[in-house]
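With this grant's support, we have settled on a layout for protein records. One resulting record is reproduced below.
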Amino acid sequence: MRPAFDSILIGCVIALLTLSILMVSSASLSVAEVRYDDAFRIIRHWLIYIPLGLLLMWGVSRVHPSWWKAASLPLLIAALLAMVAVLIAGQSLNGATRWFSFFGISLQPVELLKPTVILYIAYYISTFPDRLKQLSSGLAPMLFILCIALLLLMLQPDFGNSVLLASVCFTLWFVGGVPFRHLAGIAAILIPIAIIAVIAEPYRVERLLSFTDPWADQFGSGYQLIQSMIAFGSGGLTGSGLGQGVQKLFYLPEAFTDFIAAVMGEELGLIGTAGLIIIFGILIMRGLQLAMRCEQTFERLLALGCTLLIGISFFINLAAVMGLIPTKGMPIPFFSYGGSALFGNCILMGLLLGIHRHLPVQQNNSTRHKRAAEVVA
C-alpha cells in the first residue's frame, strides 16, 4: 500500500492559498477597478489559476521520481530552448523580456527552468558520484549548464532568479559531495562577475543605494520601500483590519504581487505576518525532513532543491519588503498573485509530494510504527 500524500505539506499549501485569496482580494479591487473598469477581474483570474495550479501539482505528484530522473536532460533542454525563445519572441514589459502570452495568460519559462536545473543536478550527482572529485568531469558539466541558465536569465534580465538558482545549485553541490575547494574556486570567480553585473546597470545601483537610505530619494528609487515600511509600521500588532488598509490605494506599487506581504502587515499586523512566517517555517522544515528521509541520492537532492527554491524565494521577498535586503521583484510562493509563479511552485510542490508518495513502503511503515510506539510510551 502506497503512503498517502503528506498532509502537512498539503495543509501548508491550502493555508497559504486561502490567505492569498483574502489578501489578493483586498489588495486588488481598487487597482482592477481603475485599470480594467472591473473591480473583480484580478481576483477572478486568481480563482481560475489556483485550481489549475493544484491540478498541475496533483499530476506532477503522481509521477514516480525515477521517471523524472530519466527525463531530466530532455526536460532541461526543453526549458533552455524556451528561455531562448522568450528572448526572441517574448513579451517585453518595463524593460524586461520574460513572458509568453497565450490567450491572455502570461507564462514565464523561468518557472520551468528552475525545477529542470535542479532535476539535472540531482540526476548528475546521483548517477556519477565517482566523478565529483575531479573538476573537469565532476563539477564542470553541471557548472556549464548553470552558466548557460544564468546567461539566459541575465539577458532578460532577471538578476533575482539568477541569484536564487545559483544559491540553490551551490547548496546541492556542497551536500552532494563536490569538494569544497572546487566550490570556493568557482565562487571566487562568480562573485566578482555578480558584482560587475550589479554596477553595470544603473537601476540596480539605484536599488542598492535606496536600500541603504530610501529617504534620500523618497519619490524615486526609494519610493516602494518607504511605502512598504509605512504599511508595516501602521499595521502594529493586530493591523487595521482586512480590507481597511490605505497603502494599497495606489501608494504601494504592485500591492497584490511583489508587495502583498506589506499589505498583509498593514491589515493583519504583526500577528498576521508572524502566521505567514510560521506556515512557511513548517513547510520548509517538512521539506527538509523529507529530504533526510530519502534513501536515494537523487530523491534526497531533488527534495532539498525544491524546498530551497520555495524557502529562499519567501525569504528574499519578505526581507526585501521589510528593507532588510535591496528591493527585488520576487513573489511569495503560493501567496503573491501570478499565474506563472503559482504554476512553477506547484511543480516544485508536486515533486515533493511525489517523492513522499513513492517512498519505500517498508520505510514509511517503520516510521509509522516508531511514531505509534512513541505515543504509547
